[in-house]
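Quick one, tokens below:
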């Protein structure tokens, strides 16, 4: 193999928005990385679904088009 062409493969700390932290390996130049969802808070893994609607867009859609899709 050629010398000096491979990226630096090192440990990085990944931080989720839920507060979960874990260490993995990566070729990124950063030592830390932030993500929005992980296996501790993703609905597929937890079995619970939560709708985060801070601006009320779901309610606006339901008010505007709610009767259109009901049979």
């Amino acid at each position: 193999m050629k010398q000096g062409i491979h990226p630096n493969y090192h440990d990085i700390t990944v931080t989720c928005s839920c507060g979960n932290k874990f260490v993995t390996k990566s070729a990124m130049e950063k030592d830390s990385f932030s993500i929005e969802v992980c296996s501790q808070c993703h609905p597929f893994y937890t079995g619970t679904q939560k709708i985060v609607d801070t601006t009320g867009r779901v309610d606006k859609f339901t008010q505007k088009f709610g009767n259109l899709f009901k049979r």
